Structure formats: C-alpha cells, structure tokens
Fold this protein.
Amino acid sequence: MKLDPEQCQRVAELARIEVDADGLVRLSSQLGKILEFFEQLDAVNTEGVEPTTSVVEVSGATREDVVRESALAERIVDAAPRRDASGHIVVPKIIGG
Amino acid sequence: MSVFDSIEQARQALDRHEISAAELTEHYLRRVQALDSQLGCFLHLDRQGALEQAELIDRSLAANRSAGRLAGIPLALKDILVTADQPTTCGSKVLEGWRASYDATVVERLRASGAVVLGKLNMDEFAMGSSNENSAYFPCKNPWDLRCVPGGSSGGSAAAVAADFCLGTLGTDTGGSIRQPASFCGVTGIKPTYGRVSRFGVIAFASSLDQVGPLARSVEDCAELLAVIAGHDPQDATTIEQPLEDYRQACRQPISGLRIGVPREVFSAGADPAVCDAVERALAELEQAGAILVEVGFPDMSRAVATYYVICTAEASSNLARYDGVRYGQRIGEDDGLLAMYQQTRRLLGAEVQRRILLGTFALSAGYYEAYYAKAQRVRTLIRRDFSDAFAACDVIATPTSPTAAFELGEKIDDPLQMYLADVFTISANLAGLPGISLPCGFSARGLPIGLQLLAKPLGEGELLRCGAAYQRLTDWHRRRPENLESDGVSR
C-alpha cells in the first residue's frame, strides 16, 4: 500500500521517533515500496493455517523458589543515564508534565 | 611466530608449552593494532584485559592444571553480546558509553572454558543489515577486497576471522547474519537450531528468530566453539533441554549414504552463474565422496523474504522500544519533558533501525495487524511445512549461501529492498528455526569468496558438521587467505 507523509507521521508518533518533514517524505516512499513488496502475502492461501509464534515449544519452566544473593539490581541502576543517591532511576515528570 | 591454522593446532602448541597464552594473545593483538585501521573489525579492543586473562591461563597451564578446552585461545565477540568488563554498543550510538551489568551466558561459557576475549566486533546497528554499512561507528571492510563489504550483520566477526585477528568469533544470525558474512569473507559459520544456544545477554532484535553461533576457519573449529556455547540455559526459557551430541565426533563421520537435497531450480534462478558453478562443483565432489544427491523443493524465496521482514520488523519495533533514554546509554532532551526525551533520544537510532521500527510499528498497529503480522505468522507455518516435506527425502539441503559474492560499499545502501533481497537463501532457515552452515566453496572471477550453505532438520547440527567437515577434507578453499593485507613486519 501507499503510505503518505501524514500516515508516516502517525506511525512515527506511535514509535516515539521524531522525524522531520524531509524525512517523512523520504520514509513514506521507502516504506510504501516495502509494504507493496509485503503485499504478495495476500495471495497466499492461509485458510485454516495456524500462526507460528515460536518454533520451539515453550512450556512454563518451574524451579524451586530459592533466595540468592545478587548485586545485579544495583549495577543495573548504576548503568542508567540518571539516578539519585538512594538508587532510583530519575526521569522527567510523568504526570502533568 | 608462524600462523596457526586451527584452534586444535594452537591448543597443542599451548599444551606442549611451545607457546604461552600471553605470547599467542600478544601476537593477535599486534596484528589487530597493525592492520585493523584498514578493515574496521573492532569496535573495542581490550588489550590489557586480554593479556591479564592469558597470563592467568598460563599459570594454570604451567601447573598442568586443566584449564578448559579453549584455555588460552584468543577469540572475539560481536558487540551484540553483553559483557560486564567491556563496553557493549550493538553498533549503535544510543548505547554509547553504556556498560552492561553482567556477561551473556555464551560469554560466561567461553570464559569458563578458558578463552581469551580480545574485544568486541563491528556490526550493523542492532544487527539490522547485510553489509555492515549500518554500523553507527564506521563500516567494516572485506579483507579480500577493501572496496567490498564483509556482509552483515556479523561483518566484523567474519572479517576478523578472515584477517587472522583471532582464532574464532561469535556472531548472531536472525536472517543470515552469520552465514552471509561467512560466505562473503571466505570463512565457516554456523547458525544453530533456534533454542540450541542461549540468548541470555544477547541484545534482542527479533526474538523468535535470533540465534548465536560461531565463525572460524574451519568446520572443526566451529564445532569446538559450538560445543562450549550450546546447551540448555535456565536463564533462557526458549533453550532446548535435550543433551548435546558430540560435535567433534560428528566431524569425523563419513558421508557415504548422506542424502543431500538440492532445490536446483530455485537456486539456479536466483544466483549468479559463478555462484551456481561453484556450488555445483561442491555438490559433485560430495557426491563422489559417497553422498546421494536428490532433487527437493524449497520454500518460495520472495515470499519468505516478505514474511521475514514483516515478522522481524514487528518484533524489532517491540524490542527496541526500550531505547527511550530511561534505563540505558544515552538520554537527550529530558529538560523538555518525557515525550520529548523519548523522541529526541530515539533520533540517535540510525536510518535503517528507524525504518524497521516504523515498518514494525505499522505492521502491529490497529487495523493492519491481521493483514500483515498475523498473515506473516501463518505463512511462516507454511514455510515450516515446506521444509518438513523436503526433509522427508533428504538429510541436508544445499544452496548457495548468498546469490552473489561480496558487493561494493555503497552499492545497495540507498535501496533497502534490494539489500533485503540479498538474504533470499538464508532467511527461510530462521523462519523454520533450522540450523545452517556456510562453507567456502570457491571464488568469483574478481577473487571474492563464494559460500555453500547446508541446512538440516531441527537439532541436525551433527549432520551439518559431518557433511561440512567431509567437504573440507576434500577441498582447501577454507585454507585460502587474503593476501592484500600484509604489511612489513606483521607476521600472521
């Protein structure tokens, strides 16, 4: 299908990516071509065919609930771009911002 | 120091104390430092860490303590595998400066077996690409011809092996990202069965397709590495519990009676004549060694490419939502509020990554989900059935790895769809979760390597190793080395 720059802008908003006007024109043409290529799948008869979500059978793996020491949480917070002294990740205001 | 042709050869020299792990490591570090400015394989070289690790191994070896089957063997890692002691960027600016909190399971297993990790290797950003030109840092080049791409996305992993920068590397393969660069650089690479190798600590691109595997100079070296990294991991629920077969043993099995399926119509229509000729010669040699060639069908390739790109972009759009400036790496624009922070931080993602996120977001969006994503998942089921039918008549399927030898830098970069079509032969194995291998099988008129791909049933790694090792006993393509790299005073 064709994708006009406005539709492309809508998708970019959903994906939280900022794209400028030139970018939208270029992307809508590139993405349109790729989406047209995807459309060959319309011609495939998939009546009654189950979708594949995984090629391996994943059943709920269970294990004993054992307490283990781990310093991982601390290190993960340390790797964040901004954190406070008490070990929290700091982000801009979420509500009313 | 003279060249080592295999991990086994280096292993013996180390065990006989003819060379120390530190000397071996120093040798490869020197080569990288002298020659990698031409190639761009390494995003990060850990000289100090590698030498310290090697010295530790030397103390174990000197005491004749068992130090593991890869003790003192210098290797390098695609920069998609997280490491606590080295940076991990995944080829992206968005992760610049970020340090992972732990080692990927495969890295942990390599280290536990004594391997020396030299550094982290160049790749297409977030493994999205077939040429390595999508690296946000610098493109990697093909050691056989510096005007050409090494393939992608594990381009640095393949080029580093071809350039003798180490004895083996790990890459990842979502649609051909181990096999295609292995083919372009004249090395051997294995994509294992989905679920055979842990993805814990592997930065996710398309979770139902991604798989880690080795690249090295030979099938036997790949088997050696696979034996270390493969197997169930409690940290990755998709890993298979079934015990590993003996991969080294598999390399020694004769191939008489092995049935090789050849989807000849498909590959002769899709590949360059020089590529077809090389593959045909390889098949004739295998037949002479006792293999039986049978004609088989193959999933429609154009349809497989479409299916693959719907699924991988959809999964990528979901996986890459996490690069929003909150928890990892770079953060931009936080003074302008949360939404601005997300949007501005994500501008750091490169053009191809943005394109794929947008495609995937579209394919998953309300009103289009059924027509694109759900449809592709159904066609995926049909592709798996095509393979089941083909494998009823054969043990492995042979095709070219790539329709062409390496192309030039810049040749396809402006046409994403053309770039996607470079993956026609490799993609369907990922959709079906099958193992595959690429073996050097000749050269183009321009002197660029050509690859033979073999695919097997799920958990059929042993059949691939059996056939691949037999082929490498019959031929010496895998022993050839690019000659245009050497400079004065740098030994191999």
Notes: Residues 21-38 of chain A form the longest helix (18 residues). The helical segments of chain A are 5-14, 21-38, 72-78. The mean pLDDT of chain A is 91. Chain A touches chain B through 48 residues (CB under 8 Å).
